[in-house]
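FAQ: What does the model actually see?

It sees only this:
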Amino acid sequence: MSDIITTGGMSNDQYNQLLKSIGQVLQRGRNQVVYAVSNTILQTYWEVGRDIVEFEQQGNVKAEYGSELLKRLSKDLTNQHGTGFSKSNVFAMRRMYLLYPKFQTVSGKLTWSHYVELLKLDDPLERAFYEKECIQEHWGVRELKRQMKSMLFQRIALSTDRDAVLRLAREGQIIEQPQDILREPYVFEFTGLPAMPVYREGDLEEALVSNLSQFLLELGKGFAYIGRQQRMTIAGRTYMVDLVFYHRILKCFVLIDLKRGEIQHEDIGQMNFYLNYYREEMNTAGDTEPIGIILGSYRDRLVMQYALQNITNQVFVSQYQLYLPNREQLEAEFQRFMAIPGE
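And it is asked to produce this:
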């Protein structure tokens, strides 16, 4: 059967290419419209915030009357212009101008809904970090909310030094070495396991894989899922790795072993064994040294110090928890960390 379309003698392949090209043009145009609308909304709300602040300053509005002003504005703006002017939204417009006095510092790559969440943060370092991560990782509002609730910034910051914290705020998380992918602790509140009085390691593994998109979000940028219970046959015996990933940035396999309770010293030897196998049997040209991460609900730091001594493979241990961190405690720990001189 001929694949020539009689109208104009154009082949199916040529026509399909034309159709594809037009589709790409339309999608670009729609994306530009969405971007333009979003940026216009941001600028409009920023200008509303500016007008409110300038009115307060010129009229010497006292702080105790500020809330009443916003309440009155919310009511009148809603009556005159429709939805979008709840008291909380008007408050956010005012706060946006105060925190971003130059509109050029507001990113058009984010939506107003993103900024409503970001404006809840008082710490400028923390706010800048989440703003950069939203842009770089294309987080939706749902992902942003989850990462803020899990205290991602503090968990990463407490595993580094103060200079690196400033870099986090300026650039977002940069993955350059194995230590950069680690978190302390990992937070698995999305598994549903806290509702179970007793669970096994297999239950945790199943819950993580069943919620893979949220698990990948918690692991961080660069992780690609390979599989669970990955087999290794050595000298006629079969061994299993709980979870295997490939890290696109570091270009290496990442092996994760899950422990329901305390991490033991023999778990280090087992992971070391797995890494030797992956380095010799699974790595291909261009792959770097594999990384092993052992996750447990707790561990003894002195035992881990001795167990990891003289291990040449990249083996790391960390804790996980099945509930969101206590914000007050983690923020207090972070503030102490930032205040201690010489660290």
